[in-house]
Design a protein that fits this description.
The protein is an alpha+beta fold. Helices cover 28% and strands 24% of the residues. Helix 2 crosses helix 3. It is globular.
Length: 139
Protein backbone atom coordinates (compact mmCIF):
# COMPACT_ATOMS: atom_id res chain seq x y z
CA UNK A 1 0.00 0.00 0.00
CA UNK A 2 1.11 3.54 -0.71
CA UNK A 3 1.79 6.17 1.92
CA UNK A 4 -0.85 8.90 1.88
CA UNK A 5 0.96 10.94 4.55
CA UNK A 6 4.61 11.14 5.50
CA UNK A 7 5.78 13.22 8.46
CA UNK A 8 9.54 13.59 9.01
CA UNK A 9 11.25 15.31 11.95
CA UNK A 10 8.23 17.51 12.74
CA UNK A 11 9.02 20.13 15.36
CA UNK A 12 6.86 22.79 16.97
CA UNK A 13 7.90 25.34 19.55
CA UNK A 14 5.64 27.92 21.14
CA UNK A 15 7.16 31.20 22.24
CA UNK A 16 5.96 32.67 25.52
CA UNK A 17 7.10 35.50 27.76
CA UNK A 18 8.91 32.84 29.85
CA UNK A 19 10.78 31.43 26.87
CA UNK A 20 10.26 28.65 24.38
CA UNK A 21 8.06 25.61 24.97
CA UNK A 22 8.88 22.62 22.81
CA UNK A 23 5.57 20.95 21.95
CA UNK A 24 6.93 18.52 19.34
CA UNK A 25 10.47 17.29 18.85
CA UNK A 26 11.41 15.16 15.82
CA UNK A 27 8.04 13.43 15.29
CA UNK A 28 8.10 11.09 12.30
CA UNK A 29 5.57 8.59 10.97
CA UNK A 30 3.82 7.41 7.80
CA UNK A 31 0.15 6.66 7.18
CA UNK A 32 -0.70 4.14 4.49
CA UNK A 33 -3.83 3.95 2.37
CA UNK A 34 -6.76 2.34 4.28
CA UNK A 35 -4.72 2.39 7.50
CA UNK A 36 -6.31 3.54 10.76
CA UNK A 37 -3.96 5.12 13.27
CA UNK A 38 -4.29 6.63 16.73
CA UNK A 39 -2.17 9.26 18.42
CA UNK A 40 -2.08 8.42 22.11
CA UNK A 41 -0.31 10.12 24.98
CA UNK A 42 -0.73 12.12 28.16
CA UNK A 43 -2.23 15.58 28.28
CA UNK A 44 0.12 18.19 26.88
CA UNK A 45 2.30 15.81 24.83
CA UNK A 46 1.41 17.40 21.46
CA UNK A 47 -1.38 15.21 20.04
CA UNK A 48 -3.65 18.15 19.22
CA UNK A 49 -0.67 20.16 18.00
CA UNK A 50 0.11 17.50 15.37
CA UNK A 51 -3.51 17.53 14.18
CA UNK A 52 -3.64 21.33 14.16
CA UNK A 53 -0.50 21.46 12.01
CA UNK A 54 -1.92 18.87 9.60
CA UNK A 55 -5.16 20.86 9.33
CA UNK A 56 -3.17 24.09 8.71
CA UNK A 57 -4.45 25.67 11.92
CA UNK A 58 -0.89 25.92 13.29
CA UNK A 59 2.45 26.45 11.56
CA UNK A 60 5.21 23.92 12.12
CA UNK A 61 8.57 25.13 13.36
CA UNK A 62 10.42 22.68 11.13
CA UNK A 63 10.19 19.28 9.50
CA UNK A 64 8.51 17.87 6.41
CA UNK A 65 4.88 16.93 5.81
CA UNK A 66 3.94 15.29 2.53
CA UNK A 67 0.40 14.36 1.53
CA UNK A 68 -0.36 12.18 -1.45
CA UNK A 69 -2.21 14.27 -4.03
CA UNK A 70 -6.00 14.51 -3.79
CA UNK A 71 -6.18 13.75 -0.08
CA UNK A 72 -7.95 16.01 2.37
CA UNK A 73 -8.32 15.63 6.09
CA UNK A 74 -11.05 16.57 8.49
CA UNK A 75 -10.43 17.61 12.07
CA UNK A 76 -12.91 18.15 14.88
CA UNK A 77 -11.61 20.57 17.47
CA UNK A 78 -11.82 19.72 21.16
CA UNK A 79 -14.12 22.67 21.73
CA UNK A 80 -16.82 23.47 19.26
CA UNK A 81 -16.17 26.43 17.04
CA UNK A 82 -19.70 27.44 16.15
CA UNK A 83 -20.20 31.03 15.12
CA UNK A 84 -22.67 32.50 17.60
CA UNK A 85 -24.07 34.93 14.99
CA UNK A 86 -24.97 32.12 12.58
CA UNK A 87 -27.90 29.75 13.00
CA UNK A 88 -27.36 26.02 13.41
CA UNK A 89 -28.13 25.49 9.72
CA UNK A 90 -25.86 28.36 8.66
CA UNK A 91 -23.01 26.90 10.78
CA UNK A 92 -23.53 23.49 9.16
CA UNK A 93 -23.42 25.00 5.68
CA UNK A 94 -20.25 27.03 6.29
CA UNK A 95 -17.80 24.44 4.93
CA UNK A 96 -19.84 24.07 1.75
CA UNK A 97 -19.95 27.85 1.38
CA UNK A 98 -16.20 28.25 1.85
CA UNK A 99 -15.39 25.51 -0.66
CA UNK A 100 -18.00 26.82 -3.13
CA UNK A 101 -19.90 23.53 -3.02
CA UNK A 102 -23.21 24.80 -1.65
CA UNK A 103 -25.91 23.43 -3.92
CA UNK A 104 -29.60 22.79 -3.30
CA UNK A 105 -28.85 19.04 -3.09
CA UNK A 106 -26.06 19.58 -0.55
CA UNK A 107 -28.23 21.92 1.53
CA UNK A 108 -31.10 19.39 1.46
CA UNK A 109 -28.69 16.68 2.59
CA UNK A 110 -27.46 18.84 5.49
CA UNK A 111 -31.08 19.43 6.53
CA UNK A 112 -31.67 15.66 6.33
CA UNK A 113 -28.65 15.10 8.61
CA UNK A 114 -29.91 17.70 11.10
CA UNK A 115 -33.23 15.82 11.22
CA UNK A 116 -31.39 12.51 11.63
CA UNK A 117 -29.41 13.86 14.59
CA UNK A 118 -32.44 15.35 16.35
CA UNK A 119 -31.67 18.98 15.53
CA UNK A 120 -34.57 19.72 13.18
CA UNK A 121 -36.35 21.93 15.73
CA UNK A 122 -33.16 23.95 16.29
CA UNK A 123 -32.10 24.51 12.65
CA UNK A 124 -33.01 28.19 12.75
CA UNK A 125 -31.83 28.81 16.31
CA UNK A 126 -28.49 30.24 17.36
CA UNK A 127 -25.87 28.14 19.20
CA UNK A 128 -26.62 29.79 22.57
CA UNK A 129 -29.92 27.86 22.57
CA UNK A 130 -28.17 24.47 22.30
CA UNK A 131 -26.95 22.06 24.94
CA UNK A 132 -23.30 20.95 24.83
CA UNK A 133 -24.21 17.67 23.13
CA UNK A 134 -26.35 19.47 20.57
CA UNK A 135 -23.45 21.83 19.82
CA UNK A 136 -21.17 18.84 19.18
CA UNK A 137 -23.76 17.23 16.87
CA UNK A 138 -24.01 20.51 14.95
CA UNK A 139 -20.35 20.17 13.99
Amino acid sequence: MNDILTISNLKKAFHTSDGEIEALDSVSFNVKEKEFISIIGPSGCGKSTILSILANLEKKSSGDIKFKKNYTIGYMLQNDSLFEWRTVLENCLLGLEITHQLTKENKDYVIHLLKTYGLEEFMNEYPTRLSGGMRQRTL
